[in-house]
Specification:
The complex is a heterotrimer of chains A (about 325), B (about 270) and C (about 525). By secondary structure, chain A is mostly helical. Chain A has 13 helices and no strands. The longest helix of chain A has about 40 residues. The N and C termini of chain A lie close together (about 10 Å). Classes of the chains: A mainly alpha (about 325), B mainly alpha (about 270), C alpha/beta (about 525).
Chain lengths: ~325, ~270, ~525
């Protein structure tokens, strides 16, 4: 088990290193010099040079890359070209919105999808199954940001149960914070839950055809008990893959959803940075997102081993 | 023919026809402003009403279908054209450095969701519909590479491939002659699903301004424009949304129907 | 009163009749074997007793266990009986166990769901039962997972689950078909011992008549869902009434006469061949361990000779086959055909390969479903510098199809239009079409029903006479190898442990492993062959 985890960890580090090179290289291609962009066309050469030094824009490409990566390792993401404040501070503030939102949505989506998928599989071909399958077919087709707009229209504008947008922050307590993230989380979670429920159902149906399910029935387990005791855990293996992939979609989705609810998250930050050509912010946010996706996939790999003993003695 | 296949074909062709028809005919010119006639609700003159500039929504939806379909189709094309050969090559040289490089490359690309790629491209090169195509297309490459490799690997274990090898055929020839025809059904079904996901992704990207730019009409941007007016002109948000849902639903049903029709054992990757 | 009494059992699935008026009885302590070829309905009879029929199945008749009709029982009443009064053992031990659950928990589950005893006592009982089936907990802790056990050991776990509550009736559906002969003998002994010890009735489903004759008190022969003959084993063997029964027994032990071999000189020379596989690394930076699948193998196959290669699964015979075919490079030694290496400079040598062809085991996986038979059997033409075209190509196709007992018109059909036996004939046609000097048969008749297998063996003997075949016949089935080869090699753990004239090796084996293999293989007793 330890060996397996260690091997995954090394592969995680390699992925992160390669991803950082790719991101750095793409940003390097960007035309124009941020320092002259900031100071305008009439800048004095010496002011320009001073600013370039301050922003860490002098030196070779390799030096700049190492500075960037080395800085990130100690939590220093550089200085924003536009705001002249530490990028790490800007990101940290926004992360407190985006990360809870993605986790909230992931939790909701799992809580909805598991029972729905299991119920549909146990009622295969019956009205309950058909209803869930119809609903998920629709759920997959709905764009989450449009769904979010409809939720705002119904629950914020008409019913006034929630605010139409904005985020009160966490200082007024957990409940207030969660309350203002609830509509965005639902908008993110339901379409993902539709996919997850379908995966759960089809994984379970595959398992139902396995020999060991017949063995379980031959022991005297009822259909339903066999499904719960032997089916669900085996079905978790394909479902975990999807949950891992979904997290990256939820992160990306939350960036879009933040626009609907005017949430001060990473999405807002990155779009402002794009229009201000604040490339160092874009670079750092992208690296952070990629870091999150790679790390979650690492965690999913570990979860596999927890579910499937066959993986534990392998490397 | 299953119900899925019929309904899916009907909905998909409806959207496709609307997109094609928009080249020769729309009820009004989609770009003509008519401020006095703004924000009309649907009526016999403007079937889907007008937007805040008085443009005919029906015409905009028709032209928007063109954008969505073009972006998603080219993106799926990129994914297939690069992903399928990579997957075939990786399977043919299973366990070799080539396989390792392709699969690790896949993992790496998977770590960059379409939106992240679009953010990077836009930050560096500026906005445009081409960004959406590239971003969605790049994300599709590992999708196709992975499913092609998976399906091809199980075929390589089959005895008819061994028989072909005994007949002196090489990896490339076997991949084209034996593997590709046997994964074609899977690719058709997965391609349909990726097409529908491409439509959704395009809408999302143009909603946040990373996709098609004005004056090219696109469903995602129509929704972005509608957002501030949703309380007093909900039809501006409803109609493009329903257009997206109908298209995606139609393609998904078509994909499921094709799967049942071609080979019910096909497992589609859906994320 | 009988333990199990089935009367007039008829069954259809989605309207297609599967069983017709089947009847059988089992007394306590009795072993009743139901035998027949695929499609005879023998497994469906077993599932009907368990009331675990597939969706769409409709059954009529009575199945009485201790005088109570199981057909009238509700599903929840059946759940109470399954595992407690009736236990069942399945064919595929590799997939019959839940891969993510410890073996102890899987056996204990049988006890606990019937609330037969407290969890602590159930645990004790589990240890006892596992010890009884030959898996003592000191060597096989209850915390093992199925993937940590061999096929035979897994089958013992499945048996432990089935007998944990000492059911009165045990059903075993092809319990040893997936196992090697030596393991098979042990599992059959275990089942016999359990029946004697617990006084259970055993309903044994098997296609293997040698196993049937060896174990059963009663034999029931089925064909197309009907019982064609039944009787006490000794009576039935002595006096078979139904022609199908006689055909089945004859086919199981089918003998062919091969023309005398001409051996003008060596064709295939295998010298000191070594084939290693890299094992996955166990530690990060250690040099990966190697598994030696073929270990210093040498032999010579003369032109016109029919050589057999026998061994159990995992002994390296498939790896050796691939090395001979030049599909994979070897780590040591040489494979020469007509004095030329099949693998030269790390590349397969096509000039040599065109003199070799192969027939595989699986009649369903051996053909690309998208191509017609004409294209399928001409695939080896790829090896020729100037492949025949036009009418010459057509003539070759027609000749080969006729030679294997099909008709030239079959060239335009797709493979799914043929039965398993016909597909194997097409595979032979494909192997013969470029007139190779050597053909490899890799378990080529192992997946076939006995009657079809007998026909294919006849075809081979016929082709030997017409085409002077030289072949290497790889099989785990000793009785087939005995009749279809002149010389035989026995392989164990990557090595050839014995080789010699087939009759001599079989009647007087020298190596202990060969002796063990031959004595473990169930044999058909002498039965009344000629009676009509």
């Amino acid at each position: 088990m330890l060996r397996y985890a260690l091997k995954r960890l090394i592969s995680l580090l390699i992925s992160l290193a390669v991803a950082s090179v790719v991101i750095f290289a793409v940003i390097e291609v960007a035309p124009g010099d941020p320092a002259s962009f900031m100071l305008g066309v009439n800048a004095q050469p010496d002011t320009l040079a001073a600013l370039r030094a301050e922003l860490g824009l002098d030196g070779t490409k390799l030096q700049r890359y190492l500075n960037w990566v080395g800085g990130m390792l100690v939590g220093d993401f550089g200085t924003s070209y536009t705001y002249r404040t530490p990028v790490s501070q800007m990101i940290a503030d926004r992360l407190w919105v985006s990360l809870p939102l993605a986790l909230y949505a992931l939790t909701l989506s799992t809580l909805i999808a598991f029972p729905a998928g299991i119920y549909a599989a146990s009622r295969r071909g019956k009205p309950g199954d058909l209803a869930i399958m119809g609903a998920t077919q629709l759920g997959i087709a709905v764009p989450n940001f449009w769904f979010a707009m409809m939720l705002v229209l119904i629950f914020a504008i008409n019913l006034r149960w929630f605010n139409a947008g904005g985020f009160a922050g966490w200082k007024d307590g957990l409940w207030t914070g969660l309350h203002s993230l609830t509509l965005p989380a639902i908008a993110l979670a339901l379409p993902q839950a539709a996919i997850l429920a379908r995966v759960m159902r089809s994984a379970l149906l595959d398992i139902l055809g396995e020999d060991f399910m017949r063995t379980a029935r031959a022991k005297g387990l009822t259909r339903r008990r066999a499904l719960w005791r032997h089916g669900v855990r085996n079905a978790l293996i394909p479902v975990l893959t999807i949950i891992g992939l979904q997290f990256s979609f939820l992160l990306a989705g939350s960036i879009i959803i933040e626009q609907v609810f005017y949430l001060p998250g990473l999405g807002r930050l990155v779009f402002q940075a794009i229009s201000a050509r604040d490339l160092i912010v874009v670079e750092s946010v992208v690296m952070l997102l990629v870091f999150a996706v790679i790390t979650v996939n690492f965690l999913v790999d570990l979860a596999y081993a927890a579910v499937d003993p066959r993986l534990r003695n392998r490397t | 023919m299953s119900r899925n296949l019929i309904l899916g074909t009907a909905l998909s062709s409806l959207v496709l026809l609307a997109a094609l028809l928009s080249f020769v005919w729309t009820p009004y010119d989609h770009a003509t402003l008519n401020i006095p006639g703004k924000l009309q609700t649907p009526d016999p003159m403007h079937w889907f009403g007008t937007d805040h500039f008085g443009r005919d929504m029906f015409s905009m939806i028709m032209v928007g279908a063109r954008t969505s379909i073009a972006v998603a189709l080219v993106a799926v094309g990129i994914g297939m054209a690069l992903g399928v050969p990579l997957g075939l090559a990786a399977a043919a040289r299973k366990g070799s450095w080539l396989d390792e490089v392709i699969m690790r490359g896949n993992d790496l690309v998977f770590a960059f969701p379409s939106l992240v790629i679009a953010i990077l491209i836009t930050a560096v090169f500026g906005a445009g519909a081409i960004n959406a195509i590239i971003a969605i297309g790049i994300f599709n490459i590992p999708v196709f590479a992975r499913i092609t490799r998976g399906a091809a690997l199980s075929l390589w274990e089959r005895e008819f491939i061994l028989a072909a090898r005994v007949s002196g055929k090489g990896g490339a020839r076997i991949s084209i002659e034996h593997i590709l025809p046997n994964v074609a059904n899977l690719l058709i079904v997965q391609g349909t699903i990726q097409f529908s996901l491409g439509i959704l992704a395009e809408a999302g990207l143009s909603y946040v301004g990373l996709g098609a730019q004005p004056p090219t009409p696109s469903w995602g941007r129509m929704l972005a424009d509608a957002q501030t007016m949703v309380s007093f002109a909900p039809h501006l948000a409803l109609i493009p949304g329903v257009a997206i849902i109908v298209t995606v639903l139609g393609l998904n049903l078509l994909g499921d129907g094709l799967r049942d029709f071609l080979d019910p054992r096909i497992r589609v990757a859906r994320t | 009163m009988s333990l199990l009494q089935i009367e007039n059992l008829s069954l259809s699935i989605h309207g297609a009749p599967i069983l017709r008026q089947v009847g059988l009885t089992i007394d306590p302590g009795q072993i009743v074997a139901v035998t027949g070829e695929s499609g005879s309905g023998k497994s469906m009879t077993a599932l009907a007793v368990m009331q675990l029929l597939p969706n769409g199945a409709v059954a009529n008749g009575t199945i009485q266990l201790d005088g109570q009709d199981l057909m009238q029982r509700s599903e929840s009443q059946m759940c109470a009986l399954r595992g407690a009064a009736i236990g069942m053992v399945f064919q595929e031990p590799m997939t019959a166990l839940n891969p993510v659950m410890r073996i102890g928990d899987q056996v204990t589950e049988t006890i606990l769901i019937h609330k037969a005893m407290s969890p602590a006592k159930a645990r004790e009982q589990t240890q006892e039962v596992l010890t009884r089936v030959g898996l003592p907990p000191d060597r096989f802790p209850l915390s093992r997972y199925p993937h940590e056990l061999s096929g035979g050991q897994r089958q013992r776990v499945v048996i432990a689950m089935a007998i944990a509550l000492r059911p009165r009736l045990l059903i075993a559906d092809e319990p040893t078909t997936a196992l090697d002969v030596t393991t098979q003998a042990q599992i059959l002994d275990l089942l016999k011992g359990l029946v004697r010890e617990y006084g259970m009735g055993l309903l044994m489903i098997t296609h293997d008549l040698a196993v049937v004759a060896d174990m059963a008190d009663q034999i029931i022969v089925m064909r197309h869902g009907e019982v064609v003959e039944r009787g006490a084993t000794n009576d039935l063997l002595r006096n078979m009434q139904h022609p199908y029964t006689r055909m089945l027994f004859e086919a199981s032990d089918h003998q062919v006469t091969l023309p005398d071999p001409v051996r003008p000189g060596p064709l295939l020379e295998v010298t000191n061949v070594v084939r290693d596989y890299r094992l996955p690394r166990r530690r990060l930076f250690e040099t990966p361990a190697r598994h030696r699948a073929v270990d210093d193998v040498s032999f010579t196959l003369s032109r016109g000779e029919r050589l057999g290669l026998v061994g159990e699964s995992g002994c390296g015979k498939s790896t050796l086959t691939r090395a001979i075919l030049g599909l994979e490079d070897v780590q040591g030694g040489q494979v020469l055909l007509n004095g030329q290496p099949v693998f030269a400079a790390h590349k397969p040598n096509l000039a040599v390969r065109r003199n070799m062809q192969v027939v595989f085991q699986d009649p369903f996986g051996s053909f690309n479903p998208h191509h017609r038979v004409g294209r399928l059997i001409t695939e080896p033409f790829h090896l020729l510098d100037t492949p025949p075209t036009g009418s010459e190509r057509q003539d070759r196709i027609s000749e080969m199809l006729t030679a294997v007992g099909l008709s030239p018109g079959d060239a335009g059909k797709y493979i799914h239009e043929f039965s398993g036996g016909q597909r194997q004939r097409i595979a032979i046609a494909r192997a013969l079409i470029i007139r190779p000097e050597l053909i490899l048969f890799d378990e080529a008749v192992s997946a076939l029903d006995v009657s079809v297998r007998a026909q294919i063996l006849d075809l081979l003997a016929e082709l030997c006479a017409t085409y002077d075949l030289t072949y290497l016949f790889i099989s785990h089935d000793l009785s087939v190898v005995r009749t279809i080869t002149d010389r035989v090699m026995v392989m164990q753990s990557g090595r050839i442990v014995e080789q010699g004239e087939t009759e001599a090796v079989f009647s007087n084996p020298q190596h202990p492993y060969t002796q063990k293999l031959i004595s473990a293989a169930p044999k058909l007793p002498d039965y009344n062959r000629g009676a009509a």
